[in-house]
Amino acid sequence: MAGKAKASAEQIDALVRLSGLYRPKWDEMHGAQTYGQMTVAKALEGQEPQAGSSRTLSAGDVVCLDAVKPVAVDWLWEPYLPLGMTVSLEGDPGTGKSTLTATLAAYVTTGRPFPGEGCPKREPRNVLFLQCEDDLAAICRPRLDAAGADVSRVYVLTAGVVGQDARIEQAIIEYRPALVIIDPIQAYVGPKVDMNKANEVRPIMQYWGQLAESAHCTILVVRHFGKDEDKKALHRALGSIDFTAALRSVLQVEPGEEKNRYRLKHVKSNIGPYGPELTYTIVPVFFTLPGGIVKTSPIEWAEQAPTTEVLLSAEVRETLEALATLGGVEVPLASIVNALRIQDSTVVARLNKAIDLNLVTKERRGIYTLTATLRGD
């Protein structure tokens, strides 16, 4: 749309409004920008100014944060899967990553609570898969059936799409999934993209991030580990570290001490405290069909400790909110007591509970600080 000539954001916006491409969605707000502004910015990416030319700021190039209304993160599964963002599930082949995605699809499509959740059953939502490794009839459908998914809400994009293919966005708009699963990621970045180069990876991750935000869904990418086991956790997966940098939450699967037993670890979170480690076992089951017997392997979760959100009492939450209001960094106990207007011993007991949950640190005697993730650092 931008063509070879240097076009401004205003010119492109005007052309869209005069053409048959305009839809009401163009003016919908997504954070500080409209969908149209985001689309135009993407169209102008890569248009370098000519030597000696000057560029002037346009409306919306700079935003004052006073005009931005803060909003709470919306969750598909707190604190692991945020809505409107991209996340990853990583691990070695054979650790049950695809089986785990089928299990997540079952929770979403039936509305059953996720492990560790204390909330009642939620509204069932759709799930969209981009997957090319497994046969739909022999592997995918039995795996989802064994997990208890409502397959009438599960869709698979079978077209050969890669990278920033518009058909991905079209499928998300049409089927409105709460969860999009890209399994595995290397099959969908495109044959000409070098996964080890940040400048080639970043545009794809930005595109998927914009899709997640505009559709208010969770996009989960499945990544395989590389061969170097000595690397730090966040460097284990194949490809550029820019993949990891663009993700808001990263889950990794590691083998447990027993056969077919695995640990699900929360190794990155940009949006809140880390979730507790979860444990599951892959259990073989058999389906008898007219054409023969199908073997698949659903997941059985070990008894889990409740997540941080469930452990937080109203009193501890109230204390954290008071600490945040007071700046969150090196706040004296006396200030917190004064804000809450309760006894010192009660406040200390609440703060000790928050320290046990890794939500607060005690800098020195009588001085408390919220953890960096709660402050948003």
Give descriptors for this structure.
377 residues, alpha/beta, Rossmann fold, Arc Repressor Mutant, subunit A, 3 domains, three-stranded antiparallel sheet, 32% helix, globular
Topology diagram in text:
Layout: H1 9-18, E1 29-30, E2 33-34, H2 35-43, E3 75-77, E4 81-82, E5 86-91, H3 97-110, E6 126-131, H4 136-147, E7 154-156, H5 166-175, E8 177-183, H6 198-215, E9 218-224, H7 241-246, E10 249-255, E11 261-269, E12 278-282, E13 285-289, E14 292-296, E15 299-301, H8 308-311, H9 314-325, E16 331-332, H10 333-340, H11 344-356, E17 360-364, E18 367-370, H12 372-375
Parallel strand pairs: 5-9, 5-10, 6-7, 6-8, 8-9
Antiparallel strand pairs: 1-2, 3-4, 10-11, 11-12, 12-15, 13-14, 16-18, 17-18
Description:
By secondary structure, this protein is an alpha/beta fold. It has three domains: 49 residues, no CATH class; 230 residues, P-loop containing nucleotide triphosphate hydrolases (Rossmann fold); 64 residues, Winged helix-like DNA-binding domain superfamily/Winged helix DNA-binding domain (Arc Repressor Mutant, subunit A, Orthogonal Bundle), CATH 1.10.10. It is 32% helix and 22% strand. It contains twelve helices and 18 strands. It has a nine-stranded mixed beta sheet with strand order 7-6-8-9-5-10-11-12-15, sandwiched between helices. A three-stranded antiparallel beta sheet has the order 16-18-17. The protein has a two-stranded antiparallel sheet with strand order 1-2. A hairpin with a 2-residue loop joins β1 and β2. The chain starts with 8 loop residues before the first helix and ends with a helix. The N terminus and C terminus are likely disordered.
